[in-house]
């Protein structure tokens, strides 16, 4: 079985690319066997999203971080599988909450079966991740528990929204850090820790990966507004249609500039289909986009600061170029 594609970063040297591809093949094998059950339906439901594809981005970050220690350490691949199972389990739950009909180009589990099956399948993946964790030691179990706590906290905070008097922008960034940044941070932490890297390297990679995760999600905010659907594969304005208040939208809504009055009116709730084109045109030309790009760049700069303190090996160059990619993909 072929390994999932490595993120297309041309700066990765040939040896590192081979190491990552080999590691991802091992991750893929263990990932599939870890969800097999004596019950054929449980196996089918659990493999539904695994077989739908995905770049295994978080697993790749585990393997990349392991380059700063002993990448062949036997705990590294199981650690990557734990991260991927956690991510996949959260996707089953996300699709229920979002009532999403499609995931990775295939019917979502809740659409193919029902919400109960999707929720329980996500729970099953979390349980299988815990089973693997039991062999990795108490420290790793504690890190995973803390990460899972942040994932849930982020989802709760997103669901209830900012409290009265709370800055909506600060609330939004905190949600991104918990919902997206935390698991990506733990990807770097697991790879470094399980490979035996020094505590300083573990801390630097943890912080850098969290910043990369927040930057990545902020880039998605910008892509929803600025992307060309042909090039990006995304439908521009999806968040606007759903009334999701991403960073550029929050900046506009916090503005009292008279020239923003029409845009504020459009963005006050879900944008009607007939108004999406106008909303996109106005938002693309608004200073809020530049402010959001500056926030993204600030997070990526935080990541670079930590990464620059790492040993000068190909994996560091890979992480630094990933930072460049996070900025460039946002347009």
Automatic annotation (TrEMBL):
Q: Which InterPro entries match?
A: Isoprenoid_synthase_dom_sf (IPR008949), Polyprenyl_synt (IPR000092)
Please, which domain of life does this record's source organism belong to? Answer: Bacteria
A family per Pfam: polyprenyl_synt
Enzyme Commission identifier(s): 2.5.1.30
- Keywords in UniProt for this one? Magnesium, Metal-binding, Transferase
Q: Does the record carry Secreted as a key word?
A: no
The Swiss-Prot or TrEMBL record lists the needed cofactor(s) as: Mg(2+)
One GO molecular function term of this record is: heptaprenyl diphosphate synthase activity
User: Member of which family?
Assistant: Belongs to the FPP/GGPP synthase family.
Q: What's the name of the protein?
A: Heptaprenyl diphosphate synthase
- What is the scientific name of the source organism? Streptosporangium brasiliense
């Amino acid at each position: 079985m072929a390994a999932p594609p490595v993120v297309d970063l041309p700066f990765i040297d040939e040896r590192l690319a081979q190491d990552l591809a080999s590691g991802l093949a091992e991750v893929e094998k263990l990932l599939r066997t870890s969800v097999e059950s004596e019950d054929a339906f449980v196996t089918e439901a659990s493999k539904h999203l695994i077989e739908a594809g995905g770049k295994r981005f978080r697993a790749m970050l585990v393997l990349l971080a392991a380059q700063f220690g002993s990448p062949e350490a036997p705990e590294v691949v199981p650690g990557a599988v734990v991260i991927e199972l956690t991510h996949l389990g959260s996707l089953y739950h996300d699709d229920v909450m979002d009532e999403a009909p499609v995931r990775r180009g295939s019917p979502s589990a809740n659409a193919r079966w029902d919400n109960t099956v999707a929720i329980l399948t996500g729970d099953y993946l979390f349980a299988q991740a815990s089973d693997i964790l039991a062999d990795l030691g108490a420290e790793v179990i504690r890190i995973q528990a803390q990460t899972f706590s942040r994932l849930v906290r982020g989802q709760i905070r997103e669901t209830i929204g900012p409290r009265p008097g709370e800055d909506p922008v600060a609330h939004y960034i905190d949600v991104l850090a918990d919902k997206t940044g935390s698991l990506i941070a733990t990807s770097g932490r697991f790879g470094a820790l399980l490979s035996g890297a020094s505590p300083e390297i573990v801390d630097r990679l943890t912080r850098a990966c969290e910043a990369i995760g927040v930057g990545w999600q902020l880039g998605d905010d910008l892509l929803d507004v600025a992307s060309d659907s042909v090039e990006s594969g995304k439908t521009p304005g999806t968040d606007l249609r759903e009334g999701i208040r991403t960073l550029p939208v929050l900046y506009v809504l916090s503005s009292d500039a008279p020239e923003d009055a029409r845009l504020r009116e459009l963005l006050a709730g879900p944008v009607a289909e007939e108004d999406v084109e106008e909303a996109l045109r106005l938002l693309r030309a608004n200073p809020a986009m530049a402010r959001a790009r500056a926030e993204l760049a600030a997070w990526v700069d935080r990541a670079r600061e930590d990464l620059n303190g790492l040993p000068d090996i190909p994996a560091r160059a890979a992480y630094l170029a990933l930072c460049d990619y996070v900025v460039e993909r946002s347009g």
